[in-house]
Amino acid sequence: MSIDRVTRKDPNVYLDAQAIAEALFGDHMAVNPIMLGAAYQAGALPIAAAAIERAIRINGVSVDMNVLAFRWGRMAVVDRKQVEAAVAQATAQAVEAPRVLSAEARALVDRVEASGELRRLLEIRVPELIAYQNAAYAGEYVDFVHRVAQVEVERAPGSVGLAESVARHLHKLMAYKDEYEVARLHLDAAMAAQLQAKFGQKIRTYWHLHPPLLRALGLKKKIRLGAWFAPAFQMLKAMKGLRGTAFDPFGYAEVRKVERELIGEYRQIIETALVRLSPVTHGAAVTLAELPDEIRGYEHIKLEGVARFREKAKQLIAQLN
Question: Is the pTM of this model over 0.90?
Fold first, then answer.
């Protein structure tokens, strides 16, 4: 392995944090605290575990999930088999309890003729893309994943992982968090029900936001908005049809332009990998498909990640060629 060749390989720790996050939490956002826990337990962080957990609680975002994910990351170093068993059990339970899909979503998922992990991924992500934009948008996603799956079977028989990686990462790029999506997520009925179940019916909800327009005018901090702002969120949610069109008032920001460009760029990168796909190049193609993991955060942090993504993609494509 390349990393082992240039490091002290004995202390190195390898884990599939995304698989752990999705199996145990059903949310890729748990990846970072899992990695943080693994890094701490491996001795790479000179900070007390109690201090890290306290920082998570002070941050106040998904506290229970992030603390638990941090501890699972530690466990991955201490007892890898226990974590693998928990992931296997969670995955088995997910298979035993299939998701209830609308007829529209079911038809799109069935179009891929997938089974196993790929079908599980599609059953999660296709309904999300329909809610994000519409069925036509989800159909574009499904058709591309289907093409990748077919080529993988034809040109790298017996190999798996490429179609799954594309299913994960193309979805990530297509469901970028713009103003319309932020509004939809804040109005999510399931989240409201969870909050009420945990804190009671009389809960007060506040949103802490840093709108791009006010940020451009020099506002440095987030503003706190109460329940009175919900109609504005409803209006934004209803305006999602403007996303990516000439009438999108938020679409002219640099980060939004880049987010839209990335979808086509990624598809073109995967098409290049498919042309060269063989049992020999399959591993490099999967690595290429997973590169959107480099893209995280918001605004300038995200743009820095995009630059890393593009540079690494260029290097990997050169290797494939």
Answer: no
